Amino acid sequence: MGQSTYTGELNRTLGLPSLFAVAVGVVVSQVVFVSILQGVGIGGASFFVAMLIAFVLTLCYVFTYSELALLLPKAGSISSYTEVAIGHFPAIVASIAGYLAPAIFGLPAELFLLEYILDVLYPGSFVYTGVIVLVMFTILNLIGVDLFSKVQSLLSYLMLTSMVVIGVVGLTHSDPRGLPISSIVEGISHLDFNVLNLTMLALWSFFALEFVCPLIEETKNPKKNIPRSMIWAAVFLMVIYFLIALAGYRTVPAGELAGSDIPHWLLVLELFGEKGKLIMAVLAITATCSTINTVIATLPRMLFGMAHNNQMPKIFMKIHPKTKAPWVGIIFVASIILIPTLLLSGKQDIILTLMISAGTIWLIAYIIAHIDLVVLRKKYPTISRPFKSPWYPFPQILGIIGMVYMILNNSPSPDMTRQVYLNAGIILLIAGAFAWWWVKYKMKKKLFEPEPIENALSE
């Protein structure tokens, strides 16, 4: 049977180490380093409290996605959960706006940052690095999920090792120019509500752990490995982020961190001098490659699941007969990242605003997920749940309140806030228009008519 017509099932090859690598790999990007170190520079001791608040909000959405993923173990992820809870229209909007939009706007920013760092380290030595990385990992994912997982594990663990080394050296550096760690206690004693405004910077560092959920149909023992991978990743990242933040707080003056576009290079330069170029290059390359690799692997699986749910064109169901890779989705996702990368090259400021805009809608997707869980608990109270969110419904209520607050406080300036809301509104309008047309005229269903859970499980 030819490549152009083959559809079928995905292979279950991913274990806990691979899923942990995916969760960590998609979260830890260069943008995350910038957020953490700029946050420390801006907020000082208060930022450590902001990270704790962000960690709690992260556990809230991790608990929610863990329960939903095992209740409806489909590659469609948020679209599968939402269609059963509140209907196909919000399911499609949440998937397109909450996940495809961040890829369109956020991934080019990550690629531009890689090019910027490499040009600072080795001027003129690297050309079109972003495009090369994107093409390389597109080909890798077309080869199949097994090779993807091996490369992802290598990238993630190499990146985490580099972060631990930087953090430990920062804590033991003999000539720090920042503030003593003992001053953190005094700083925390003078906390005010501004700490909540810093939480958005910290929360960026925990986005996307749920990207393991679209891989559930390729996961071995998902009942244990899906929740564990996200929870362990959240805890491990919290420790790593604290190490990096403490190293920056102690080693580099706050004003320099807050004012730099690449504060992670300032930290590495302070710790290792010019010899730190190689460490910085390894960190930058592994962080960006890990994020790109994971997104190109997971989003096509989400489109695959949506196509199975009749929420996307059936062409996204096509998988390669040998590699079992959803090749149409992979090429599509790579293309929607490549186009803005080429068109907006050199316009990093615009991309940053667009990324925050898309991230704002990502928060809406998290809110929808929390609502899904509450609705499904009430609608199907007796159905088997391999994982149940601890302390229900408090994580869901806290998650909704926290995400709403973050949406209302999502950028550092009023001018950017207005632009973010405008961009987010345009994204939602486009996603809503497509979802309305698709549900009404292609699916021929009511916009907010939930799908019976029996139908969703049998698809």
From TrEMBL:
Localization (cell): Cell membrane
Segments crossing the lipid bilayer: 20-41, 47-72, 84-105, 125-143, 155-173, 193-217, 229-249, 278-304, 325-344, 350-369, 390-408, 420-439
Gene3D superfamilies, alphabetized: Amino acid/polyamine transporter I (1.20.1740.10)
Naturally occurring in which organism (per UniProt): Aquiflexum balticum DSM 16537
Protein name, per record: Amino acid/polyamine/organocation transporter, APC superfamily
GO molecular-function terms, A-Z: transmembrane transporter activity
GO cellular component, one term: plasma membrane
Chief location category: membrane
InterPro entries linked: AA/rel_permease1 (IPR002293), APC_superfamily (IPR050367)
Superkingdom of this protein's organism: Bacteria
Keyword Zinc-finger: no
Taxon lineage: Bacteria, Pseudomonadati, Bacteroidota, Cytophagia, Cytophagales
UniProt KW Hydrolase keyword: no
Pfam family, one: AA_permease_2
Sorted UniProt keywords: Cell membrane, Membrane, Transmembrane, Transmembrane helix
Membrane topology of the entry: Multi-pass membrane protein
Cleaved signal peptide residues: none
